[in-house]
Amino acid sequence: MNLESFADKDARIMGKKGHFYYNYNPQIRVDSNNQIIVGQHVSQNANDKQEVKAGLESIKENTGKRPDKMTLDNGYQSGKNLDALEQSQIESYVPTNRNDKKPNESLEESNRSLVKADFIYNEEHDYFRCPGEQCLELKTKDKNGKCVYQGEANICVGCQYHARCCQSKKGAARTINTDSHEGLRQKMRERMEREDSKEIYKQRKVIVEQVFGQIKNGGFRGFSVRGFSKVTGEFSLVCAAHNMKKMVKAIMTGAVRPMFGQIAPQKA
């Protein structure tokens, strides 16, 4: 099974200037061959950083198995999501966040500031090595897994990159913030830098993005009911209607044919 990724409709729970908008975050999983929605759920989370686990469970429930391959947009780039994909052993492709991407300009050929991607993470010994060869050790880790790595101020002050790296007005050493899944972030970044990975990810825009466009063009622009259970039911109907259209089109075009009461692929 080769499935396209999770994606979200432009609906969120947001707060702006003290006002909250009680919107929802619908998620779909789309088959790359026929644009069939093989899994969906509605979330009340304001972003997609913890939606992968629920999404994988919906795929397993509906199809009886996990996908072989998945692509997800960078809104799903989080430690929890990467861990869920790693545990499921799915070949996945998630773009790197802007702060974690390697800059196009090297430090030697520019006057740019140092970013996180300039620091090399050593997963085995759990530290970051800066371009000045100092090791930033783990200083704090909270109950949510947030980790802070920091160097030594007396070493930073003598570094050739000090002015471009340390921004503390109190003279503190450079810090790197991440979580307990930094190794998975680095692994995904390396994968997404490969040319074959970029080609695989390009396919996403003609699979899942088109499905949301088709749903919107079909007249669904927002939920007509209130309450989580009702919204969940309405979105299930929306997805079912989309799938029915896809199946009818496949039968009419000869892509599949009825056989003994079931739908079977048409031989080429």
From TrEMBL:
Residues 130-248 form the Transposase DDE domain. InterPro entries: Tnp_DDE_dom. PANTHER family: TRANSPOSASE, TRANSPOSASE DDE DOMAIN-CONTAINING PROTEIN. This is Transposase. It comes from Candidatus Marithioploca araucensis.
